[in-house]
Design a protein that fits this description.
By secondary structure, this protein is an alpha+beta fold. It has a single domain, classed as Orthogonal Bundle (Arc Repressor Mutant, subunit A). 60% of the residues lie in helices and 13% in strands. The protein is built from 7 helices and 5 strands; from the N terminus they run ββααβααββααα. The strands form 2 sheets. It has a 3-stranded antiparallel beta sheet. Strand 4 and strand 5 form a beta hairpin. Helix 1 runs antiparallel to helix 5 and helix 2 crosses helix 5. 16% of the residues are buried.
Length: 178
């Protein structure tokens, strides 16, 4: 039992413990969530001098109109706190991959734009990154399992992002046919 605030009242709630099978599945998911970022980071660091998050920021900019996004929109698309994103963009800016400028529509806002060098870095890094994703995730699964993984991810995202704050980001490839 634990206490929980419900409609302004504190109520006792019985804990629904995980079954042995649920616990085994949960522990495996936790292991994937812990191991996969390191696998992605190590390949990108070795081959392109980028972290996975650096690459993700550059990739989001590469897909944007005029390769430009407001920092707040970029933060939303990458699910990053603005201070973290500002730090990463500053480092990318120092490398000549991104530039920041005042937003022409709102001088209080700042835009981030992918430079030609930044686009070149994305194009250089993408083949190795995709090969790494394919090797460690996609090719480990059958086509049916890849489809199931998409369905599982959708079910989890419905719970994790009920307001749909990141829906545009993770649904942007849904209409693309192989």
């Amino acid at each position: 039992m634990f206490l929980q605030l419900c409609s302004g009242r504190i109520v006792a709630v019985k804990t629904r413990w995980l079954t042995k099978g649920e616990l085994a599945t949960w522990v495996r998911l936790v292991a994937v969530l812990e191991l996969l970022p390191n696998v992605l980071d190590s390949q990108l660091r070795r081959d392109a001098g980028l972290t996975n998050f650096d690459y993700y920021v550059l990739a989001m900019l590469s897909e944007a109109e005029d390769r430009t996004l407001r920092m707040t929109a970029l933060a939303a698309q990458t699910n990053a706190a603005l201070p973290r994103l500002s730090h990463v963009v500053r480092r990318l800016e120092e490398r000549g991959l991104v530039e920041r400028m005042p937003c022409p529509e709102d001088r209080r806002a700042t835009n981030a734009r992918l430079t030609d060098a930044g686009m070149g870095k994305v194009e250089e890094a993408a083949p190795g990154h995709v090969a790494n994703v394919r090797e460690h995730v996609i090719d480990a699964l059958s086509p049916a399992q890849v489809e199931q993984l998409g369905e599982i991810a959708d079910a989890l995202l419905d719970r994790l992002d009920p307001a749909g704050g990141m829906t545009a980001m993770y649904r942007r490839h849904d209409t693309v046919k192989d």
